[in-house]
Structure formats: C-alpha cells, structure tokens
Amino acid sequence: MSDYYSRYAEILAERYEKVPTDRVHQTWLHLLPRTKANVLDVGAGSGRDAGFFARLGHEIVAVEPCSELRDIAQRLHPEAAITWLNDRLPSLKAVYALNLRFDLILLSAVWMHVPATSRERAFRKLLGLLKPGGILVLTLRQGPDPDERQMYPVSSEELRHFAAQFAAEVVIQAKQRDEMGRPGIDWEVVVCRIPDDGTGALPLLRHIIINDPKSSTYKLALLRILLRIADGAQGVVLERTEDFVTLPFGLVALYWVKIFKSLVLDNEFFQQPAGSGNLGFDRAAFRALKDISSNDLRIGSRFDGEIARNLAMALRDARNTIKKMPAFYTKYPGSSEPVFPCTVAAAKAADTMSLDKESLSAFGTFQVPTHLWDAMTSYACWIEPAIVSEWAKLMVGYDQRAGKERPLDHYYEGLKWLDEQRNTKEIREIVERLRNKGKAVFCTWTGKKLRDRYDIDHCFPFAYWPNNDLWNLLPTDARVNSAKSNRLPTAEMLERAKDRILEWWDIGYAAPGYSERFMTEANASLPVIDRFDLGNDLECVFSRVRHQRVRLKSFQQLADWEVAG
C-alpha cells in the first residue's frame, strides 16, 4: 500500500486539497477546543487538516509514513505550528517518544487501513495519548475498494466495543456522504472521549483499571465493589467530609464475598496465575457459603446458626485480604500514598447476623476519597464496563496459562452482579399469596386489577441500575411492563402512581420479616437528602424514590416513559 501512495502522491495530494476541512469534518468540528490545543493528526496525508488546525492557532503533530506525501505536505503547509513525524499505527513509537498528551487525535480515512488484528492495540495506544476530556475522531469508509490499496472492513460497533473496553465514551456517531462524490462510498464518523470531571478522579480511576500493574484481579474487584456501593448503597455512608467518604468495612467485605463466591465457588475461575498460592479469603468459612445464593448476600438479609457464624468469619477474612492487598497496593501514581485508607475492628461471630449498617460497621471503616466517590456515583454506567472487560481479560489469561479454554461469554456470565429472574420470582409469590386469599392486586401504573398475565416491574430499569430491593419491585400488567421496557417513569407518571405504590408497599410487604427488610434496603440504597429522611415512614421512602429518579435521569439520560392514553 505504501508503494501506491508513493507513486501517486502528487495526484492524491491534489485530490485531498480540493475538499475543505470544514466540509469533511462538519459533524464534529464544534467539539474543537476554542483555546490553543494540542492536536495529533495520524495519517495526515497532504496536510490539509493539519494546516487548517494550525491556522486556528493550535499546535499540531502530523504523522505520515509515506515520505513522498510528507514532503508535499510540508511544502503545501509550512506553518511553524506543525511538527511532522514519520510514524505509523499501531505502535506510534515516535509520537510516544515526544511525551505529549493531546486534546484532539484525528484519524481521517485511516482506520480501514489498519488490519483487524492490530486495531485493539492501536485503539488503546491512541487513547493513551489523550488528555482527560480529549477526543479521538475516526472516519470510517464504507464501500468498495477502488484500487490496489489494502482496505479492511470497519464498523462503528467495533469502535463502541473498544471504547467500553478501554474506559472511553462515544459522544458522536454519525453518517456522512462522500464529499468527493464517489459512487457507492459513504462515511461514518465516530468520536470518542476520555471523560473528565475536573477533579482528576476519572483519570485516576482509568489509571487503576487500565494501566496499574496487577498480580491478581483484586484491584479491579475492589473498584467494582466501591462503584456498586456508590451507585446503589448511598444510605450506608457513615460520614462524608471534604476529603473522604467513610463506609462500613463489613459492607465492602460483603460485596467482596458476593462477587467472588460466584467466580471462585460457582465457576472456579482463576483470580491470579495458577501456582501463585491460595486466595487470602478462600478459607473454610467462605467455602461453607457455597450453597447460599449470591443474591441473598445483600443488605437486609438475616442469617442464623452456623451460616451466620460462617458468614461473619468469611467477612472478616475478606476484610483482612482487602486491607493487606488491594487497599494497600492501590496507590496514587508516582506516590507511596494509598488511595483507600482503612481500619479494622474486632467483629465477633455470633449465632445471629443481620446485614445492616450497624453490624457491617463492626468490622471497621473503609475510606474513599470524596472526589473518587462522586465520580463513581456520577459515571458508574461508564466505568463498570471497563472494569468488567479488564477483569474478564485477566481471567482469560490465567486460564490459558493453566491450559484451560472456555468461551468468552462464560467469564462475563460469571461477572454478572445479579440474577434478575430469581429475585422477581419472590415478589410474584407474594402476589399469588394475596390473590389466593381473595385480595385484589392492581397494576401499579394503571390501577387496573391484575389478571393472569402480569409482570413484576423494576420501577427504575434494572438494565441501567441493577437493584432488586423490595421497594423497586412493583406488580404491573404484562403489556404495560412490555411498553415501559427499560425506560424511566417521568416525574408526573411517578406522582400519578404514588398512592398505588404506597398501597402495594403497605399490603405486599406487611408480612413478618418483610417490613423490616423493606426499610433496611430502602435506607441503604436510596439517597439520603437530610438527617430527617431516614424515618420508617413510606412517605419518606417515596420522597427518596423521587430524588433517585432525578439522579438516574441526570447521570444516565434515560428515556422517559408514561402510560399511553
């Protein structure tokens, strides 16, 4: 292919220069920084785009591996703000040697020349050159190959997969016609961004997920656990200051046992290279929990007898492992300061154990920097796929080194947080008990009496906020639930359904054990607005549901839903 560009450099340069940059890149140029920015133009060709950016006052590094095209480009665009390099994907060694980070990286009509086997590495290398908040722009050619240039099939779906894998977000995906008017040729523009909340939290999280050395899956496990707590257990926070959010160490340990029970006991996935020794938490007490559902290891559950004693000891072992390993070794880049300070307390095993704020606090305290906590709260839906992808990749590597082969989807299945069907079945059983006693149960959203075809709906869609607490599970007409799908009820819809929701909470969870569990779960997962907001009053719970709806709408921009007609 390089021979083709060398032979036809003059013709190609003339062709490129005829189409203005502001026409070729009209779909995303509004994202270009208004202040002076560092720009990397990979596959710069005739220098048309590099010259455009230079005239706007930006600093450009232009990469072009074809020397003939590079010579022409330097003649056509002699701006001092352009630095020309002979480099190529996927390694970009010369660019990395500059030790620069860029606000914008552009690959215009380049990606289809990168072989499929090199694209994952190329994408990772490109993201590694972006500043927090920086954007990566790729234009994808769709259509027949016109000449002897080697082109490979490309797709926006592949780029979306890479973005999720490497903790980036896709901010633009758009179709665009061919500005040269060539028949059968179309373009797709994909713009990815490294998010930045302005506090440094997101770059730190991304560093831990992608770049930080890992001898096991422990660091990823700890991050995912904290992410789940920040996203779904706000009410369990012990204290919040300007510097730290303090959590019950027992809660962190509980989530640790929950996720590793599935991976280690149920699926037997390696969590470190084979032959590295035993996992610190994998002891007799942990193994005694094998027959307990991971879904039952949640706030609000109560255990008695031998199970209670084993659970307490398993939480203690998990806590000690967390303190000695991931909490100790997760440090700020270039520093010996740990990111997550923690202290332990002497929690004793007993014949009864309720998983509530008080009992989980008996294991000690775990601190999360406040700026990290806020980032986890706001960006959970972006951060978690990157953690899961990296975790699956580590387990694949551990299995392969041990001579094991499994389908990739087995790893992702093992990393699932909850089994939705298992948990809605419990609420369906409550509905059936009420109906068998002759009590009518009504659709929460419409008020119509439920017949045989009904569902248990997650008020806030499980696909985007996995929560199976009692307060979030509502009996609904099957057709209404199907129409609602994964959408968020509007504020008006929630208000219209308020009396029916309160009535369901009252009659559905009045049985012994349910009312206490209902309040424990609500107090753990719903945001606390002020200190008066933790009462055992259903009106207070509904007020907090309102606030959670606002949070989900703000953070995830979910589609709205109302009952039609």
Commentary on this structure:
- The structure is a single chain.
- The protein has 565 residues and is an alpha/beta fold.
- It has 23 helices and 17 strands.
- It has helices at 2-7, 9-17, 21-24, 48-55, 67-76, 93-97, 116-127, 156-165, 201-211, 218-232, 249-266, 284-287, 305-324, 326-329, 357-361, 370-401, 408-414, 420-436, 478-484, 491-496, 498-508, 514-525, 538-556, and strands at 38-42, 59-63, 82-85, 102-107, 130-142, 169-177, 186-193, 239-240, 244-248, 302-304, 342-344, 352-354, 364-369, 454-458, 473-477, 488-489, 560-561.
- The strands form five sheets. Strands 3-2-1-4-5-7-6 form a seven-stranded mixed β-sheet, with helices on both faces. Strands 8-9-13-11 form a four-stranded antiparallel β-sheet.
- Helix 5 (67-76) links the parallel strand 2 and strand 3.
- Helix 9 (201-211) packs parallel to helix 16 and helix 10 (218-232) packs across helix 16 (370-401).
- The model has no long low-confidence stretch (mean pLDDT 89).
